[in-house]
Amino acid sequence: MVADKKRKRAEGHGKRSKATGATPKRQKSNAGKRVTRVDSLAWKSVEVPEMFDDAEGFYGLEEVEGVDIVRDGDTVKFVAAVAESDNAENDAEEFGGFDDAPEETGAASDQDSSPPSTKPAAPVTSDKKPKPQKKASKAQKKEKKEKKEGEKKEKLEGEKKGKKEGEKKKAAKVEPAEADPELETNVFAQAADLAEDEDVDMSQWAPLDLSQEMLSSIARLKFLKPSAIQIRAIPEAMNGHDVIGKAATGSGKTLAFGIPIVESWLAKRASNEVAEKRQPTALILSPTRELAHQIADHLKKLCAGLTTGPYICSVTGGLAVQKQQRQLEKADIVIGTPGRMWEVMSTGSSVLGALRGIDFLVVDEADRLLKDGQFKEAEDILKALDRTAPGEENDDDSDDEKPRHHRQTLVFSATFNKGLQQKLAGKARYNLLGGTESLEYLLQKLNFREEHPKFVDTNPVSQMAENLTEGLIQCGDLEKDLYLYAILLLQPSRRALVFTNSINTVRRLTPFLQHLNLPAFSLHSDMEQKARLRSIERFKSDNTSTETSTSTTTSSILIATDVAARGLDIPNIDLVIHYHVPRTADDYVHRSGRTARAASAGISILLCGPKEAVPTQRLIAKVHAAAAATTNTTSRAKKLALTTGVGVHTIDIDRRLVSHLRPRVVLAKKITETAIAKERGAREEDWLKNAAEDLGVELDADELAQAGAWKGKGSGKKLREKEAALVGKGEVKQWRWELRELLAKRVNTGVSEKYLGGVDVEGLLRGARGEFLGQVEGLGL
Ligand SMILES: Nc1ncnc2c1ncn2[C@@H]1O[C@H](COP(=O)(O)OP(=O)(O)OP(=O)(O)O)[C@@H](O)[C@H]1O
């Protein structure tokens, strides 16, 4: 039985668990079993498929075994082994966690969550099923590591001493901290593997004055030097200051706030404060669910190298709230989206009480928090955190009189509006009194501990990654599908991320590209959370789909709305395509920032209709102009902005070649749109039938045929849809067959023997067949 609990509860009705197999409970004795509450069952993380790299469980998804679901009149009951429910009751009192192994934990924090029925305060156990071979190799690795550590212990001691004596900058080689054997089974495989690696030179971190334990953890991640934002923001935060940090996308902002938080937790742990006061050290607010999970994963990876780490949990919508509430009770670092955070804070006074004592409040992607209706919840959270006693309301007008509290506030983004930036940098009057729903207003609400938070801006003039290449392709409004396909073929990439401005476009483009044998996945906010996470995991996995006969093209494509624009850190996205032009300059920065992250390079391409090209150029020129004017840059885009006022260079795509792709695209579009229209038609018909049933009237065939008929705005589209819905199965079959044939052939460019398609695209692009595209390196960017 796998959670999404609600659904699986229903599915599992009257069945035995998958572990014990077959017999329905009704036929068995109930001896040793007891009816129990659903949240007291021994839920445990769903095991992550091998192909996924999240070694800790599949986000919020849980499963439970050995539970029978029986129906009693109108209620459904859960029958579990007595030992389990007994423990559940004890557990409920102490809130030690009930799960076999929660998926949302930091390293040591899993201690709390071993199965209570076996070891209440047990050493940590892996939540994975035993894998004998792997375990054997892990044991060998451990032995090897211990030997290595033994040999180096003396050296390490020497270095520690050296550091104390003020030789920090010379403390070059940092060894992983000695592992606590009890905890070792709980750290990520990835971290354990990293620990095996050669010595890592960490001397460049020395000026940040981090603890030895932290340096060891960073060494495991193989981050040889801090990024610019880390160099500047970490010391400020560790010295107790409020920080507003601005740095380009992909420049390591997460650890810029993550490292000081974990350092603070380590200091508390050393003084036993962690054990005495069970309350979180930090609350991190994230604008999207995916980003919240990603931040949690990032911090867990950092903490995987610690002998004892903080308990890290994410609190986001779309996943079981009960479990998140349980985890919150023992959390040290909480990462939440405003909506779900406010839900749990406003319903559980103990959670709220504990959160009032946090040492750090982080607002990541602060400017985005103002959008998408999250502002209200963010504001409610801030107010609730500042209340001194439950029930006491903070009057908006009384902000000036709010007592300064002890917590530090850290605010990060790649984009702050220019006026605000100047104010923060002290170049304009520093008075954070903007209109409501502005970032200034939010900053005011944050109730900083200091009057002037430290403003750290590592890229005063540019928000874009240095190694990003940008381009624009102009095409007809109705030709975007064709050009999208052409780009994906001509500019093959490891991973491509396609941004659209509408959920319906995501729904249409995904099957459209799949019909063209491209491995496309969807991501938008109307998807179930489970499906959202799965899409990301599939996109992340390097497993190129077997359906892709043209697998020499892009190996994985995510079609997304702007829900994917902020913060998502997926390795090897080397191509971002703006199918719809971004609505704002900031959106352009963040979308494009999904590529060219850390030290890697990437390409961002805008698809513009005739009327879009000029305003889009202007928008992007705005992004680049300041940078071009003030920096001695080699970047093509910035030079362009400076010399021509044009934001981005236009890609000279081979139109003749593109036109040869048209027949494929036309067929794929027809197949896709027919399927969508039929589905929509069926839904409308169902809706009408249900409504008629409710009213107790009968509908005749004509009325049903009229279902969905529309006479107002958009009626032309409706009509086309209606026609598409009427296409017969035979015709669709014929189109599919034709498309298959076309995809199996190479595309004849009409000039000698130059072809695209089939299996040899890469060869063609690399010049195997000459000047086919005019360029052999993709689009010539
Ligand atoms: N010091 C470092 N050395 C090398 N890589 C690093 C370092 N710090 C962070 N990274 C890696 O860089 C990538 C980007 O980091 P992160 O997601 O924190 O960027 P960001 O600045 O928050 O980006 P965005 O603005 O898009 O949210 C991550 O994969 C992270 O693991």
UniProtKB/TrEMBL annotation:
Residues 483-641 form the Helicase C-terminal domain. It comes from the Eukaryota. Its EC number is 3.6.4.13. It catalyses: ATP + H2O = ADP + phosphate + H(+). InterPro entries: DEAD/DEAH_box_helicase_dom (IPR011545), Helicase_ATP-bd (IPR014001), Helicase_C-like (IPR001650), P-loop_NTPase (IPR027417), RNA-helicase_DEAD-box_CS (IPR000629). GO terms for molecular function: ATP binding; hydrolase activity; RNA binding; RNA helicase activity. The keyword RNA-binding applies. It is an enzyme of class 3 (hydrolase). Residues 1-18, 131-145 have a biased composition (Basic residues). CDD domains: DEADc_DDX24, SF2_C_DEAD. Residues 1-40, 82-184, 384-404 are annotated as: Disordered. SMART domains: DEXDc (SM00487), HELICc (SM00490). Residues 86-103 have a biased composition (Acidic residues). Residues 234-434 form the Helicase ATP-binding domain. Residues 146-176 have a biased composition (Basic and acidic residues). Coiled coil: none annotated. RNA helicase. The Q motif is unique to and characteristic of the DEAD box family of RNA helicases and controls ATP binding and hydrolysis. This is ATP-dependent RNA helicase. It comes from Chaetomidium leptoderma.
